[in-house]
Amino acid sequence: MQKLFLLCFTVLLSITSNAQHLDQKIDSLIKNEFKEANGPGGVFLIAQKGKPVYKKAFGMANLELDAKLNTNSIFQIGSMTKQFTAIAILILEEQGKLKVSDPISKYIPSYPNGNNITIHNLLIHTSGIKDFTKMKALSDIAQKEMTPEQMVDFFKNETVDFAPGEKFDYNNSGYVVLGDIIELASGGSYEDFIQKNIFDKAGMGHSYYASDRKIIKNRAFGYHKKSSGYVNKTIINFSVPFSSGSLMSTLDDMLAWQNALNKNLLLSSKEETKAFTKYKLNNGQEIEYGYGWHLKNINGIATREHGGSIFGFKSMAVYIPSKDIYVVGFSNCDCNSPTQLVKDIAKLAVENLKNK
Fold first, then answer.
1. All structural domains of the chain
2. SS3 of residue 12 by DSSP
3. Measured between alpha carbons, how far is 41 from 351 in angstroms, rounded to an integer?
4. What angle do CA 251, 182, 171 make, to 5 degrees?
5. Which of the chain's ends, N or C, has fewer CB atoms near its CB within 10 Å?
């Protein structure tokens, strides 16, 4: 009995020591990027098998009020919104309200060349339509309240970059069109559809369609860094990025999102698999993008990942299916990108959590 007790104690001590060692390594990585304790910062989470094994906050949530970030702080997640838009499309497909093979002209008859651009093309960034974020006229509408139809009209008549399916070119316009289609197919607003069919079902009680007007408790404020110091983020009307980049969330809610996907709480396994499939161009070349996720690898181990960037904020998440490891990081200054940092943390997690 005494030998068994000693063995158990030794194993427990080893596990505790390894966990502390991993924490120290990650802390060091993060502090090397987020060097100013009194500047904007970031929050980070590592989960294994659906449970957090590391969760910390660094830096300030509001410089004017001297308020620190905490692990429940709410961030704008930018283009990580595309994951939710893509899954919303698949939910509608499972409900029989659309098919990803449908041409967009079925929903938006006036769209130029809409008979040849499919929902599938929009999802995997092979539509060839002009990305509105690259248009000089964007500044004219950036602070205006736009309907989805007005946003689509803003870019739909621009010269296309290539024929549908010819190239992969990351494209925000495509995901705005998807948001418009979600509203047309569902008969309600994009915001309400995401709330009812994803946030509520996944238990994401602190996730929102972004607003600078609403009182959102525990909101992290966004910043830019200039030569003179930090300044408040540039204002944009969230109806402009819309379904390509206008959601807000927390570390715990993003873990709830990942867990909901893993447990098929939102979609059947068959339908959800479409999001995590690598697709091909017209010439047969495979691309590393599914529906709303980059499908890449870390040291040969397959990953599902996506980042986001919107005025004052950056975000990144990596999921490693074979290890059931999820890593997510948010920053409230677009001067600090968590993209490579989250990938480096994911590598450490794979190396240090593999025997757990």
1. 36-353 (3.40.710.10)
2. helix
3. 26
4. 70
5. N
